[in-house]
C-alpha cells in the first residue's frame, strides 16, 4: 500500500513525552539488576544526588514509579488533612486537573484566576502566568490561616506560559502567611530555570517524560524541611505515597518497594547528559529553541497562546488558530500527511490551538523540519498566512548562536 510514512522517524513534537535520545534508550536496555543488591545502592544514591542538583536543592527528592499525576497526589496527601483549604491558581488545563484532584481527596481548593476572556475569545487566565498580587491579596484576608498550601504550576503545558515562582514566595511572605508553597514543574524541570531552595518552594512535583528526556513512568517530589515537618502531623491517609519510609531507605540508596530499575538507568544517563552540559546551557538551549519557534509563529501572523512576552515557555509554544479553523482537524492532517504529532488544545482551548514542543532529543534541524510540517499543513488547510515562518526561523537559527543566548 502507498504510505507516506513508510520510512524515517516519527516526529514526536508534543510537549512531552519528548523524544528519547539514543544514549538513554541504550542505558534503559541493560539487564535489570537486584534492587536489594550491592550495585543498586550506587545507582540509587547517584540518581538522587543528581536530581538534587537539577532541582537545585539540598533536601530529599522522592522518586515514585508513577506518572506525574501520582506525584501530584503524593504532594497533597503527605501534607494535608481532610477538609484543609488550599489556594490554587488557574493557569490552564493542568492547574485545573490538580484542583479537581484536590477536591476528590476531600480538600477544599479555592481556584484563583485572572477574570474575563480576551479578543481571541479565550480565557485571560489561560494566556498569562500566575498573578502573585492576587495571591497576596487573598492570603491577607485569611487572618485565621486556614489555607494550608498555595499550589501553582510553573510551566503550564496546556498553554506554553510560565509563572514567576519566586514572586509567589514573596507574596506569601509579604502577607505573613504560613502556607506551604507547592509547585508543579512536571514540564519545566531540566528545560526552564527552576530553583527549589532559592525560591523557597516546599514541595516541587515533576516527571520523567519532559525535560529529562526519559520515557514516562517515574515522577518526583522535592521536599523542604517545612514540608517534611508538615507530613508528620497531616492526617489524609497515605501509605504508598508516604515520604517518611522512602526518604529513610533512600539514605542507603534503596527503596521500600521495587523501583523502576531500568528507568533509573535511563535517569542516571539523563542526569549525566544534563549535568555534563550544565544547567545554564540547558536553559539557554531551550530558550533559543522557543525564540526560534516564536519567530516562525510571528511570521505566519498567528497569535501565541501566551499573551505576555515576559513569560513565554522555553519548552513549548501554543499557537492559536484563526476563528473557524479547527485546530484538531489541522493536527490530524499534519499527522496523516507528514508523520508529525503536535499537542492538542486541552480543556477550554479544545480545537482553538495546537502546541509545538521544543524539548527532548531535538536540534535546530529537527525543529526546522517540524516547522516545515506545520507550515505545509497550515497551507493545505487553507489558513491564510502573513508570510513564511520556515524562512524566518531559518534566519533566526542561522543568525543566533547559542553563546549569544547564553550570555544575555
Ligand atoms: N502537570 C503538568 C504541567 C503536565 O504537563 C502533566 C502532563 O503532561 C501533568 C501534570 C500530568 O502528568 P502525567 O500525565 O505524567 O500523569
TrEMBL record:
Coiled coil: none annotated. Residues 47-291 form the Aminotransferase class V domain. Its cofactor is pyridoxal 5'-phosphate. The keyword ATP-binding does not apply. InterPro entries: Aminotrans_V_dom, PyrdxlP-dep_Trfase, PyrdxlP-dep_Trfase_major, PyrdxlP-dep_Trfase_small, SP_NH2Trfase/AEP_transaminase. SUPFAM superfamilies: PLP-dependent transferases. GO terms for molecular function: transaminase activity. It comes from the Bacteria. Keywords: Aminotransferase, Pyridoxal phosphate, Transferase. Belongs to the class-V pyridoxal-phosphate-dependent aminotransferase family. This is Aminotransferase class V-fold PLP-dependent enzyme.
